[in-house]
Amino acid sequence: MSKLTISPCVWSDDLLIHHELIDQQHQEIINRINQCVESLNAPHEFSFEEELEVLSLMVFLLDYIVVHFSQEERLMIELDYPHFFAHRMAHTYYISRIFDFKERFKREGLTDGLARDFQKDVIEWLVDHIRREDNRLAAWNQVHQKTRKQSSQS
Ligand SMILES: [Fe+2]
Ligand SMILES: [Fe+2]
Fold this sequence. Notes:
Layout: H1 20-40, H2 48-78, H3 84-108, H4 112-153
One fe (ii) ion (FE2) is lined by residues 72, 87, 91, 129, 133-134.
């Protein structure tokens, strides 16, 4: 059991990148992260059932992240996005961090170090990624849409 409490990931409109589907998916990821946070923040040692519950919530989270990332990557390919490889590498890194976290939790339970890593590597990383990388992709998408509109009018 950790002495630290993990703070939930807070959605705010400044995380909107103005791409309807991606924005919806980001909110769903945050919901799933917060379900993990809620079960990780149990004020007592985990029972076997609770441990299984945490693990299945992490798998539930990972499943959705994989769907979301492949959606973004498909969009990047369609748009001939110049930062595709860097963005994709960031996605791969994030999946491996969460997978790692799940394995460590299975081995050690929730230690202080793990709680800190979840805060930093799962929650803060995601918020930062949305603000920088996904926003940059959305900006590229908007330029692309505009150019497409203009060339279809001319
Ligand atoms: Fe994203
Ligand atoms: Fe992304």
